[in-house]
Amino acid sequence: SAQLAMLRYQLNPHFLFNTLNSISTLVLLKQSEPANAMLSRLSAFLRYTLANEPTAQVTLAQEIETLKLYLDIEKMRFEDRLRPHFHIDPAAVQRARLPSLLLQPLIENAIKYAVTPQEEGADITLSAQLAGQNVRITVSDTGSGLSEGGVDPTTGAIATESTGVGLANIRDRLAQAYGDQQRFEVQSGADGGFTVIIEFPFQPDGQVTIGTERT
């Protein structure tokens, strides 16, 4: 539990500073309506992060609603350059459970490395479906990807100026929560784009796995 809590508290806070800077700019420009809207969304997002215990599990539906709230904040910064898409299997979304805010760093990374550097922005797609006894979640973007040899598909380590902290955090949280009953894989296409695939046991009805023990 202590290890899970530590990993949860390592979530990248850059979006918070970016959002506050954006709000400050809107205030200076006397654009009070969008500034208030961004503050409201930020408040709701932070309320969610503080309301859940760091070791808590939530439904996939809750996690996706939180991601959409986060994306609403970022859309106010990037407008049409940020194009999110969701393809969610209804059979998984209501009952599947996962560690709280497990997916947010994936979306944050996609915004940082795919949307921000490109004038035209990028598409970010999240899909989730059942795969046998597992839940499979894929997050992909249409950014420039990584050069050959830039990523270790097993560990998620990235050999670029990025430290890969967000991906390493997710990998470690999965390992702590599910032991060897999980999968973490990253892929970079030859023509661009970056994809992260994770799988973990489908745990309906509030069942929780800690390591390899089910409680």
Alpha-beta classification: alpha+beta
* Mean pLDDT across residues: 80
- The tally of helices reads 7
pLDDT < 50 stretches: 148-163, 208-215
State the end-to-end distance. Answer: 13 Å
Which short descriptors sum up this protein?
five-stranded mixed beta sheet; 7 helices; alpha+beta; 23% strand; 9 strands; disordered C terminus; 215 residues
In short:
With 215 residues, the protein is an alpha+beta fold.
Description:
With 215 residues, the chain is α+β, with helices and mostly antiparallel strands. It has helices at 2-8, 14-28, 32-51, 60-78, 90-93, 104-115, 165-178; strands at 57-59, 82-88, 97-99, 122-131, 134-141, 183-188, 194-201, 209-210, 213-214. It has a 5-stranded mixed sheet with strand order 2-4-5-7-6. A hairpin with a 2-residue loop joins strand 4 (122-131) and strand 5 (134-141). Helix 1 (2-8) packs antiparallel against helix 7 (165-178), helix 2 runs antiparallel to helix 3 and helix 3 (32-51) runs antiparallel to helix 4 (60-78). It starts with a helix and ends with a strand. Mean pLDDT is 80; it is low at 148-163 and 208-215.
